[in-house]
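Reminder to self: tokens first, then the designed residues, so the page reads top to bottom the way the pipeline ran.
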């Protein structure tokens, strides 16, 4: 019940955050959820039990996988989304202006399944542990593959060396003012030199 109250409160504040022109034009409040799991069960229960209607909200729940849901919010197609904090952070890093007002869970709910003989973490010592996908071990190689691609395949290091040779101080100023991972916006307090 506490989750339901939190959800209703969050939806109320979310609805209040919708610009008046959109609120007047739309008869439904579209809420995108980024997963089909028990994590969003409070949304479905509220819809099925009529809790949204009870508080004057005509809600349309739409499943859009989390990253795409955030893109729909950035485009203004969806005013409210139930997505993970990483998606909000990524959108804001790219120039969005979103606020996370509610989390539907206060702990990670992953399941660790073991044979009946294993009762504690100490019982796992020396045992093998399986992961969720058949080729999941390859995920450990991804950072190494990315490093090799960036340094050996893409040509980025030679391009930077050429830029330093041909543009000198201007390129150094650009490097100081721009993050190599997120080229926009410029770092705060840094100023790039302009060409005469």
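Designed residues (196 positions):
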């Amino acid at each position: 019940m506490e989750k339901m109250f939190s959800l209703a409160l969050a939806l109320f504040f979310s609805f209040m955050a919708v610009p008046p022109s959109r609120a007047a034009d739309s008869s439904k409040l579209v809420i995108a959820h980024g997963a089909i799991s028990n994590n969003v069960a409070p949304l479905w229960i509220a819809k099925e039990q009529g809790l949204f209607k009870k508080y004057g909200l005509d809600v349309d729940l739409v499943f859009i996988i989390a990253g795409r849901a955030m893109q729909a919010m950035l485009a203004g197609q969806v005013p409210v989304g139930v997505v993970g904090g990483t998606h909000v952070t990524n959108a804001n890093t790219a120039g969005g202006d979103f606020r996370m007002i509610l989390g539907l869970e206060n702990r990670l709910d992953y399941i660790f399944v073991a044979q009946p003989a294993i009762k504690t973490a100490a019982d796992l010592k020396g045992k093998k542990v399986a992961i969720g996908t058949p080729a999941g071990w390859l995920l450990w190689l991804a950072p190494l593959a990315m490093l090799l691609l960036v340094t050996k395949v893409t040509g980025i290091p030679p391009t930077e060396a050429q830029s330093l040779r041909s543009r000198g101080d201007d390129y150094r100023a650009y490097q100081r003012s721009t993050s190599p991972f997120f080229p926009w916006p410029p770092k705060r307090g840094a100023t790039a030199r302009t060409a005469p």
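Residues 88 and 99 are 7 Å apart (CA to CA).
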